[in-house]
Amino acid sequence: MISGYATSQGTEKFAQKSGVNQSNFKIFQNLHLSNVGIGTYLGDPDSKTDELVTNAVKQSIQSGVNVIDTAINYRSQKAERSVGKAISELINDEKITRDQIFVSSKNGYVTNDADVQLGFWEYVKEEYSQKGVIQEGDVTSGYHCMTTTYLSDQLDRSLKNLGLECLDLMYLHNAVEGQIKDVSKEQFLENLKSVFKLYEQKRNEGKIKFYGMATWECFRVSPDNPQYLSLEETVSMAKEIAGDDHGFRFVQLPFNMHYDQALLGKNQLLDSKNVSILEAATKLGIGVFTSVPFMQGRLLTPGTMPEFNDLKPSLRALQFIRSSPGVLAPLVGQKSQEHVSENLEIMKIPPIVEEDFIALVKKLTS
After folding, report:
1. What digits encode the pLDDT tens for the residues 265-292?
2. What are the helix (H) ranges across 163-206?
3. What is the dihedral of CA 358, 364, 365, 366, to 10 degrees?
4. How far apart are CA 44 and CA 74, in angstroms?
5. Which of 267, 299, 283, 187 is nearest to 235 (CA)?
6. Could you tell me how far CA 164 lies from the centroid of its own chain?
7. What is the pLDDT of residues 186-233, one digit of tens each?
8. Does residue 221 lie within any of the structural domains?
9. For tag attachment on the chain, is the N or C end more exposed, with fewer CB atoms within 10 Å?
10. The CATH number of the domain where 89 resides is what?
11. Is residue 9 part of a domain?
12. Within its chain, how far is the Cα of 250 from the centroid?
């Protein structure tokens, strides 16, 4: 198991020696984080994809990306293992040190293990039910479980899969989305408080540095939607548990030129004003990573996105997202060497400055 975690000194050193435009690192929580990250969601749970993901993670890190995102249920635990292999190989080859990279994973969905020859429910029964990790009624109709016993088990599995002693960021994965059909909002918030207490305990144990919520709907929908969550109230919950030094510092949500609610939808109430989730996050000291930058390739079709800055579609998509005030980095799912090379051309140019970005948004929305 590799010890350590991302540090201010380590990530600054990574940025300096990365060879990319230095304005492509944002400082958040004293960490220098690349404004593009690599995601590992898609792909079959087979050894061929393992190799592609491992190589893509290595290539991305060596091209100036130090934000790596995965989840235990991605490719039935094989995504985490592929990421772990990439990290250990780069460290063994002395290309990086552990303190230079920021690694996040997600827990909450019930997952099997593609490397174990058991059907989904057989695995769940053998690994979770019979060992008392999951009790009857713990799993929702959305295959989601957020009991502290289950999440604690999953964190340990994630660390083992990744070969790390400590994760920089652990997200609770699609919690509202996976629970709200079966649980009342009041009960959900009680359960969320228990999860935050667990995560604070895991911080004290040195297993995670920060925690957050990886979401799909809850921070983008209107307040009258059952899936809605107030970011301010969620931050207040963390403060109530652990004071100002709480570890709830990140959210992840979908954002691109089609899913623009995070930027344009004013659904969060803050200081008696309606603001966007990105504005709320900035004011509350929450870092935002974004998912689906290309909508799994659909945005890259010619003519789908408005043109600007003479950039090819993939770079245009990334440039728009990473230049949006409040966004730390879009997370790009990339596997082939060719796609990694093309996407990471973006690291050679700076993001759009805020004044020009506001002008661009006005032009695109008028």
Report:
1. 999 999 999 999 999 999 999 999 999 9
2. 175-179, 185-204
3. 100
4. 9
5. 283
6. 17
7. 999 999 999 999 999 999 999 999 999 999 999 999 999 999 999 999
8. yes
9. C
10. 3.20.20.100
11. no
12. 8
